[in-house]
Amino acid sequence: MPVIEVLIRDLERLVGKTLSLEELEDLLPRLKCEYEGVEGEYVYYEATHDRPDLFSAEGLSRALKGLLEIELGMPGVILRQERVKAHVDGPTYRPYAFFATVHGLKLDDEAVKQIMQLQEKLHITYCRDRRKVSIGVYDLSKVKPPIYYTKAKPEEVKFTPLEFAEELTLKEILELHPKGIEYGHLIKSYEEYPLLVDSEGKVLSMPPIVNSEDTKVTEDTKEVFIDVTATDPQAGLKVLNVVATSIAERGETIGLVEIEGTWSGVTPDLTPESLLYDNTLTEKVVGIKVSVEKASELLKKMRMDAKPISETKIEVKIPAYRLDILHPIDIAEDIAMAYGYENIKPEPYPPPHPGMPHPIEFFSKIIRETMVGYGFQEVNSYMMTNKKLLYDMMNLPEQPTVEVLNPKHENYSCIRTWLIPQLMEVLSQSKHADYPQKIFEVGDVVLIDETSSTKTREERHLAFAIADREATLTDLLAVLKSLSLQLGFSYKLEPIDHPSFIPGRSAKIVVNKKSLGILGEIRPR
Q1: Which of 182, 212, 232, 308 is the most buried (most CB within 10 A)?
Q2: Which helix (H) or strand (E) holds 473?
């Protein structure tokens, strides 16, 4: 979880109240934050990855005002009538760009630091280290709309990158600027790089690498232009909402931007999401019995709008910056936090009942310990994944798969049918680490089974992978043979042609005349 640094007096100024350290230590856990302590004039806390709205003093103050009952319900947003125009025609590998403006800002040095902190903490968490989404914030008074998200060849454009004094070409920035060196791998293999410019050709930034020194935000900035470039449009829109609403805590209005191009529309879209909450879930999950009126009051303390519509149902409106509310269970959690965990009285434990591990769990434990003994490192992936990873990236035709009807996110749209693709994903994200890399996973998969009452069948699988310049099929066979001796089973190998593997370098594992697995050397792509 990211550690957030906030100047206490800046937080007090935003909240409008003096805060004791005891209060902060008590209130932070009620926002799923972990109090880390105080150093000098700064308080430090860990915020969970699913609450990026708490990655800076602005979002924290907004949440604290609710818990302290200074402000209740969903924060009001004043939208500016005048709109900025933008045109999007970026590179195909990073095609989406979304924008917003914030006006009437009152900034000082600490406020600028908090805006930068919000960007960086979002980058390393929700934005997947800028691979998925990147953020830029600029002094709007220094640019002339309309804004253009475009592309340029590495040596045809020059601008002065942040904290530099001289102009550099895009190629030179990747070679010389610290951010270019750190993030250049995201774009340098392509013929054209992303570029954000205004109507006069002034460069605002080279997403997702670095902003221009000419448009940086300072203490004198009164209005800002925010850009979010992304490979995933939904992720980009959500990040824009978090950034715009956070910065707006120091301003007066949020401005809309009309976008034409790859994606056309108006951003930011701050329309709250509506959810019908069954208050009986509160007692089932939290263990407290509260009326719909009381539950509504508690939700207002968590900065949502809530209105009872029956004896058990509440209409809840969720702010656009709350990315963690995906299910009614998340509403129940917010009710519990607003109520205060310290106010929930524990019930006596029921009489003890003897239990024992399920045989499959006992067997899985043996396999895990055995694989660790072979020098492998265990990974634990989500059962939810997507068909692109399961099939397309593994060079396989699509197969019958359990899919989510209305997925919240395209990366989690189905349930996995095998484990190897997720091991490959882990290895692809660990290319910077030392080799050899030996990883394994013991986990469940779900297969379509028309003979079952549920039309599905759940199986526990083992998958392991070795990544090394010298690794061959022989290394896998050595592990398989050791496993068979350790677990007491015999097997034979039969050659197969599997689209995921190099021809002639794959086989199926047959035990008691049943095909129970495959192994092979991954086909380079």
Answers
A1: 212
A2: helix 473-487
